[in-house]
Fold this sequence. Notes:
With 174 residues, this protein is mostly helical. 83% of the residues lie in helices and 2% in strands. The chain contains six helices and two strands. It has helices spanning 3-10, 19-34, 41-50, 53-97, 101-129, 134-170, and strands at residues 35-36, 39-40. Strands 1-2 form a two-stranded antiparallel ribbon. β1 and β2 (39-40) form a beta hairpin. α2 (19-34) packs parallel to α5 (101-129) and α3 (41-50) packs antiparallel against α4 (53-97). The longest helix is centred in the middle third of the chain and has 45 residues, at 53-97. The two termini are 30 Å apart.
Amino acid sequence: xxxxxxxxxxxxxxxxxxxxxxxxxxxxxxxxxxxxxxxxxxxxxxxxxxxxxxxxxxxxxxxxxxxxxxxxxxxxxxxxxxxxxxxxxxxxxxxxxxxxxxxxxxxxxxxxxxxxxxxxxxxxxxxxxxxxxxxxxxxxxxxxxxxxxxxxxxxxxxxxxxxxxxxxxxxxxx
Length: 174
């Protein structure tokens, strides 16, 4: 066996029947729900429990990530939006019109993350306008995390249903 056939056996391009795809899907959504607006959830829990330096660390990292996210949005948000529309419309056409399973898998993996980014941007804008006490920042981050988890559950459900449909229609039963 040569190297290329070994690599392509490990990294199968039939994504929905590949265990690695489902592992990546789980890692993406567990990471996205842990990092609300770039702030790890355990830092919020520690700041609420201990206060003091942990609270100041949380407020500092929220301020830094909020300003960073809003700066990127204001400076290059339109270019990012245009590139994202181009990228996802290309993936959708390749995947669902031309039936390229790998493009379907990448689209179903990455497209819902756009909604998570919109929620993060919305949370950053709300935090820029309001008071930055621990109570308000904590409620905003928890709300952002809950919305991210809801999007993740819906995304995993749709991806698993579509993946099962693809496996049944292409597999031995189809």
